[in-house]
């Protein structure tokens, strides 16, 4: 039995609403989704954080900024944890009511992780919608202006996703390409690039089925299985809280509707030290073990 033994990351998914509706989204997020984490569930997450020594809190969505309690949650997490990650789609930072977020993130020393599926407009817009690339670059400039990607303690990471049913290229090589291209063409810089393998669930899974590519893609994942990624699979060291308080081993299991085996919620755990958790696996897990490995923090091989 595989268990998560050294839980160091508390991931909190605050809802499925998003200002975008990307083709590859495993969460199937979009403007019409209404699932949203309540303040009560967030308070339970904060109690868990107080009682257990998590090194990292990772706040995600949807577009997490759209949750009405988002800023309060970030502020409280930053009081209790030195490393707070927020996953943003960048373009939300240009929307009315959200333009001061770069300063807010800076003031709370948030590690901003931004999805930018490719460094060209054509490839990014094909996955995310028209003009998304141009607006993402504008948002990156705002983040650079307040010090992100410039000062060592203001970390701005980008996330690459393949534009179809193939595995990501080498993370190291892709990071060099992104850095060179984005600086030369747009004058923007960032800290690290994470390459993430598209998981065959959610909207991407539906696309694979519709296009008759699911079997081929799964065959590609099985064929690229790399045993050396097993020790660093992210489910070994994180717990992921869904918008309604249910607990999962990771965000992909949330999307696949595979809650932790005992069906626990955040309210069951609050007030107790965390025990070993059994990890629930499915076929989608092969996306984490193919090639150089994949996780919310990018490639896992050798990590
Ligand atoms: S991939 Fe990210 S930005 Fe795109 S719809 Fe999903 S949550 Fe929103
Ligand atoms: S998808 Fe599977 S292998 Fe990947 S982190 Fe989640 S449980 Fe672990």
UniProtKB/TrEMBL annotation:
CDD domains: Radical_SAM. The keyword Metal-binding applies. Coiled coil: none annotated. Pfam families: DUF3641 (PF12345), Radical_SAM (PF04055). InterPro entries: Aldolase_TIM (IPR013785), ArsS-like_C (IPR024521), rSAM (IPR007197), rSAM_ArsS-like (IPR026351), rSAM_sf (IPR058240). Residues 167-299 form the Arsenosugar biosynthesis radical SAM protein ArsS-like C-terminal domain. Residues 12-149 form the Radical SAM core domain. Keywords: Iron, Iron-sulfur, Metal-binding, S-adenosyl-L-methionine. GO terms for molecular function: catalytic activity; iron-sulfur cluster binding; metal ion binding. PANTHER family: FE-S OXIDOREDUCTASE, SLR0304 PROTEIN. This is Radical SAM domain protein. It comes from Desulfitobacterium hafniense (strain Y51).
């Amino acid at each position: 039995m595989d268990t998560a033994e050294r839980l160091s990351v508390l991931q909190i998914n605050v809802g499925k609403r998003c200002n975008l509706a990307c083709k590859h989204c495993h969460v199937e997020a979009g403007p019409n989704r209404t699932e949203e984490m309540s303040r009560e569930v967030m308070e339970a997450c904060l109690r868990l954080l107080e009682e257990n020594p998590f090194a990292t809190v990772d706040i995600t969505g949807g577009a997490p900024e759209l949750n009405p309690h988002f800023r309060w949650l970030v502020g409280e997490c930053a009081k209790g944890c030195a490393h707070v990650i927020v996953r943003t789609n960048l373009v939300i930072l240009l929307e009315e009511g959200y333009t001061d977020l770069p300063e807010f993130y800076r003031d709370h020393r948030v590690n901003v992780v931004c999805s930018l599926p490719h460094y060209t407009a054509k490839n990014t817009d094909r996955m995310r919608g028209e003009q998304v690339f141009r607006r993402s670059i504008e948002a990156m400039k705002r983040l650079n202006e307040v010090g992100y990607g410039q000062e060592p303690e203001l970390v701005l990471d980008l996330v690459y996703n393949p534009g179809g049913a193939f595995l990501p290229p080498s993370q190291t090589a892709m990071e060099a390409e992104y850095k060179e291209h984005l600086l030369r063409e747009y004058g923007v810089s960032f800290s690290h690039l994470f390459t993430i393998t598209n998981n065959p669930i959610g909207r991407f899974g539906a696309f694979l089925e519709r296009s008759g590519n699911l079997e081929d893609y799964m065959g590609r994942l099985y064929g690229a299985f790399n045993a050396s990624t097993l020790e660093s699979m992210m489910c070994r060291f994180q717990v992921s809280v869904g918008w309604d308080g249910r607990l999962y081993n990771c965000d992909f299991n949330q999307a696949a509707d595979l809650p932790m085996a005992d069906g626990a919620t955040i309210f069951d755990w609050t007030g107790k030290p965390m025990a070993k958790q059994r990890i629930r696996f499915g076929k989608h897990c092969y996306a984490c073990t193919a090639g150089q490995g994949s996780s919310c923090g990018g490639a896992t091989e050798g990590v």
